Amino acid sequence: MLEHGDAMQSKPSDIDAETLRRMLRAGGLEVTAGRAERILPVALALLRGCDRLAALDIEGPGGAGIAQAPDPLP
Amino acid sequence: MSEIDFLSIAELGTRYRRKALSPVEVTRRALARIKALDGKLNAFITLLETEALAQAAAAERELAAGIDHGPLHGVPVAIKDLIAVAGAPTTFASRAGSPQHPTEDAALVRNLRKAGAVLIGKTNLLEYAYGAVHPEIGQTNNPWDPARTSGGSSGGSAAGVAAGLCFGAVGTDTGGSIRIPAAYCGVVGLKPSFGLVDLEGVQALSWSLDHAGPLARRVADAARLLEGMTGRLFPARLHGLKGLKIGVMAHPGESRFIQPAVKAHFEAALAVLEEGGAEVQPVSLPDLDHAADALLAILEPEASVIHQRLIAAEPEGFGEMTRLQIEAGFALPATAYIRAQQLQRALARRYSGLFATVDAILSPSVPWVAPAEDPALGDDGGEGEMLYSAVYNLVGLPALSVFGGLSPERLPVGIQIVTPWRADDLALSIGAALETRIPPIAAPLEPD
Fold first, then answer.
1. In sequence order, what DSSP letters do the residues of B393-433 get, joined into one string?
2. Which letter, b or e, does each residue of B375-397 get, where b requires 16 or more Cβ atoms within 10 Å of its Cβ?
3. What is the pLDDT of residues B283-339, one digit of tens each?
4. How confident is the model at residue B131 (pLDDT cuts 50, 70, 90)?
5. Which of A12, A61, A70 sits opposite B421 (nearest CB)?
């Protein structure tokens, strides 16, 4: 059994199919347990990328996605 | 091979105006060539034969009456099949939500019509411009070797141009989908500055990363198409290379992927620019190795939201790989999306600073020549294929792929030219300068 502190240190990619199914539901997609098993390898590849992003020390704002353009086109 | 099928847009226009060729004659030739060759290529999903011949006839009548819409007047152009063309089905190369029957043109199509272009057909793509071929539709084969892919996702547009089936085409690019097929097929492909081409009527894959742009056999042709799509001018004329500062970007992980022929042609292109008077210097930026992670952390959840209703209503209509990608995107944490946006902004600032010291950044377009099949998004092959392209979707800079030579197995290599925000014309100008020194070669595919 993980202690609370241990759980906080786990990575997004440390998940099984049932956890994935719950994450998908939270994101707005209902899938069966069998379908979650099929999605798991693709989701894990994506979530490993999220782990790498989480390890970066990036300063500055996020949000507003496309506003990275220095100035808008007229 | 007939020289007519591979004329530049400028030469085609000259012959139209001298009455040495007519739009109807050229459109008929293009349609016949598509029918003769597309069995091998699978580049076109819908051929707009009746409509194209009617447009060509109208273009011919207008020229005879002294009405001239400019360089694209009467020029057969193909449109990627996720862009709305009024009266033509849009299939998205999918069985989900497909076909749609738009009654209005996309904004860029409307502009191309105003410029006089003849819309000859809708081209094949990776399903919904995502990372996979729908198995019932199949990949677009490469005109240089039909046992290989034309690349994705704008493979039909690139192959159609390379095989002389049309004189230009429109593609879209969210992580390299114009530049990768342009490189594999030996043609020119431009991902313009973010926001330059209006995406109204273009099926979105990722609002933050989507771009539409031209594919053509020559840089000047790509410039004319971009003018037609936007209504702005892109003269693409560089007054000499002397003093031009070229940065060669260090891409972490490059040595893991790059093929010797690609490296050799890239170095040869740099040497050619140096001989012309350009100054070449190495440049680097931190965190470039995380660009693909950031791209996917933005692209995948945006694509999942875009397809949310369709994936619930018609999951079986998607190919399995596309379906899995859409489904997986629902699991991505919001914190990862925001971290990716932080990196996106940080990289945009760093590129902006870098362009205080160089005029353009060069790299190969893809580290390898066309493989048999498109690698899967998110795996090692997908990471390698987007090594040089993905970051420029994140930061929105113009990025042009031009022909850089043939590998020993006679497959094209692409060279990517990146310039500052909104300096699309400079990218085209440098591309044109390189093209005069490394001229394009027509693909060898011919009817049996």
1. HHH---EEEEEEEE-TTS-EEEEEEE-STT-HHHHHHHHHH
2. bbbbeebbbbbbbbbbbbbbbbb
3. 999 999 999 999 999 999 999 999 999 999 999 999 999 999 999 999 999 999 999
4. confident
5. A70
Instruction: Please name the residue of chain A whose CA is at the shortest distance from the CA of residue B298.
Output: A65
Partner A contacted by B424 (CB < 8 A): no
Specify the DSSP class assigned to residue B365. Answer: S
Question: Can you tell me the mean pLDDT for B216-242?
Answer: 94
Q: Which of chain B's residues have a Cβ under 8 Å away from the Cβ of A43? A: 327-328, 331
Cα→Cα distances B257→B154, B163, B235, B260, B387, Å: 22, 28, 36, 10, 9
Q: Does B436 touch chain A (CB under 8 A)?
A: no
Contacts of A74 in chain B (CB under 8 A): none
Neighbour count for residue A17 (Cβ, 10 Å): 16
Conformational region of residue B191, where left means phi above 0, alpha means psi within -120 to 50, and beta covers everything else: beta
At residue A11, does pLDDT exceed 90? no
User: Can you give B34-73 as a three-state secondary structure string?
Assistant: HHHHHHHHCCEEEECHHHHHHHHHHHHHHHHCCCCCCCCC
Q: Considering the candidates B177, B193, B206, B304, report the single residue annotated as catalytic.
A: B177
Contact B293 A50 (CB under 8 A): yes
**Is the ipTM reported for this complex over the cut 0.85?**
yes
Specify the length of chain B in residues: 448
Count Cβ atoms within 10 A of the Cβ of residue B56 and give its class: 0-12 exposed, 13-18 middle, 19 or more buried: buried
Token pair 């049309």 is found at B166
pTM score, two decimals?
0.95
pLDDT surpassing 60 at residue A8: no
The secondary structure of residue B118, as a DSSP letter, is: E
Record: contact A58-B346, CB cut-off 8 A: yes
Q: How many residue contacts between A and B have a Cβ separation below 8 Å?
A: 135
From CA A47, how far away is CA B62, in angstroms rounded? 57
Does pLDDT of B40 surpass 90? yes
Report chain A residues touching chain B, CB-CB < 8 A.
Answer: 12, 20, 23-24, 27-29, 31, 35, 38-39, 42-43, 45-47, 49-50, 52-54, 56, 58-73
Any A CB within 8 A of B103 CB:
no
